[in-house]
């Protein structure tokens, strides 16, 4: 029977790349986001056609604890098991602490941190009953380093790293591993918009100069991480080669956190 994986926040960007690479590695996949549009289900059909695996789409609002837990249960029931849980869902907002809107703080903590608690808590008994599993949390270089004006995001991603370690220790010896991937800057549509905004602000600079001198200031390689690299790292953490890797962070950040 094919192994199964649920990837939260996976109808675009990093999450979709992870789902695609997991499907290419032979996993049945549950895609997820908060919308429930025909194009979401069409995306699942497209990935299924590309990879030859069963791929479904399940809508759930990761800001709601009940939705998070129900999502895991639905994925398990629909796919007939749950071997891998990838907690990827996340949002961002940038502002000084004293100006940071409370509702934005609450939403970032709920989606970027608390959702991983709820999905993991629901998945652990299912994985234990099945004899094992893999939990992969998509953190960030900001789970290991801070930047100004990103208080909620940095707090949430630091929290994900700590949560990862705790879960790994609790599950040691159960054949369930839990690890965090910490990407640096990845060229997603979200980052592309930030580049365009910065280019408009710094109109005296060419776009490639904005990328090199402003966006990539903290990333020594001066190259973006690709979504495919994050997907491949996830596949590795779910492989037999990674059976004794647990409770750790893997930085895919062009040297950012080496500084």
Automatic annotation (TrEMBL):
GO terms for molecular function: 3-hydroxybutyrate dehydrogenase activity. InterPro entries: 3-OHbutyrate_DH, NAD(P)-bd_dom_sf, Sc_DH/Rdtase_CS, SDR, SDR_fam. Keywords: Oxidoreductase. Its EC number is 1.1.1.30. It is an enzyme of class 1 (oxidoreductase). Gene3D superfamilies: NAD(P)-binding Rossmann-like Domain. Pfam families: adh_short_C2. It comes from the Bacteria. Belongs to the short-chain dehydrogenases/reductases (SDR) family. This is 3-hydroxybutyrate dehydrogenase. It comes from Tianweitania aestuarii.
């Amino acid at each position: 029977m094919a192994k199964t994986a649920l990837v939260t926040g996976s109808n675009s960007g990093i999450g979709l790349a992870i789902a695609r690479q997991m499907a290419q590695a032979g996993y049945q996949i549950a895609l997820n986001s908060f919308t429930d549009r025909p194009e979401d289900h069409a995306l699942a059909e497209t990935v299924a056609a590309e990879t030859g695996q069963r791929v479904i789409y399940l809508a759930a609002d990761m800001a709601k604890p009940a939705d998070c837990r129900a999502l895991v249960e639905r994925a398990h029931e629909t796919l007939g098991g749950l071997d891998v849980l990838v907690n990827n869902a996340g949002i961002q907002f940038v502002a000084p602490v004293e100006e940071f809107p409370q509702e934005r703080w609450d939403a970032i903590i709920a989606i970027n941190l608390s959702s991983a608690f709820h999905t993991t808590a629901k998945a652990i008994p299912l994985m234990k009953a099945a004899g094992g599993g893999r939990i992969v949390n998509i953190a960030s270089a900001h789970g290991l380093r801070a930047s100004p004006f990103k208080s909620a995001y940095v707090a949430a991603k630091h929290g994900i790293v700590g949560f990862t370690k705790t879960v790994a220790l609790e599950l040691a010896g159960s054949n369930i591993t839990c690890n965090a991937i910490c990407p640096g800057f990845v060229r997603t549509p979200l980052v592309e918009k930030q580049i365009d905004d910065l280019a408009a602000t710094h109109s005296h600079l060419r776009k490639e100069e904005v990328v090199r001198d402003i966006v990539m200031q903290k990333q020594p390689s001066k190259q973006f991480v690709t979504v495919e690299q994050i997907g491949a790292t996830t596949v590795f953490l779910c492989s037999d080669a990674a059976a004794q890797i647990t409770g750790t962070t893997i930085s895919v950040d062009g040297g950012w956190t080496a500084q």
